[in-house]
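Recall the central idea of this unit: under ordinary conditions, the amino acid sequence of a chain determines the structure it adopts. In this exercise we apply that idea directly, starting from the sequence alone.
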Amino acid sequence: MDPFQSIVLGLVQGLTEYLPISSTAHLRVVPALLGWQDPGAAFSAVVQLGTLLAVLIYFYRDLWEMAMAFFRGLAKGKPLEDIKSRMAWMILLGTIPVAVIGLVFKDAIETSMRSLWVVAGALMALALVLWIAEKVGKRYMKMTQMGLGGGLLIGLAQALALIPGASRSGVTITAGLFVGLTREDAARFSFLLGVPAIAASGLYELWSIARTNPHGVPWLSVGLGTAVAAVSGYLSIALLIRFLQKHSTAVFIGYRIVLGLAIATLIVSGILTP
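Accordingly, the structure predicted from this sequence is:
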């Protein structure tokens, strides 16, 4: 992978990671249409560290307050006394399902499940579930009002993001709408919930490729892609939160369906190889 390809894919990663449209789907389709090799799940996970940096910068105050409340609660022997501490526990406990399932099915996730048929199906299936969430969700609650059960439910939903094309932000925002969060707060909690999972997967893959093939990795290209993903990811977060303050997720539902159908059509026509 040359620096130009890495910059393009970093931009794609950053713009799509936090929108409910699946960054994995775009990182599979864009290279295929341009005649490039699939960058692979490992590259995607490492470049996600750029989007992780975007979240850390954008939500630094929330993350700092939750961390301080978490340790204060442990020191006082009352870990769930403070709302910020409870949110920290929600995020930590909500990360366990995706971590366990990700390790158990790691090989399949990185190989057979990256089929474009899987991606197309997941795009359209989640679009339907998100549409249902928009219809039945009450959208009355801020994330600071959410109970531990609601946070854990969203954490369980996050595990579905391991299916390429599902979208981590997509499944967690959808689950947030189902438990009653406003659209904006569903997105905010989705971004915060993703911090441990993105950090763990990105650092693990970075360590893995550095350990197994340190001289065969295009570090300049990976670094450029990660930096571009950080900048574009920050912009994506800001734009989505502002958008959801006044609009529904209908545009993303429609986009997912169109993209899923387009991928299926291109596979059938022989333009894309599944």
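Residues 110 and 272 are 19 Å apart (CA to CA).
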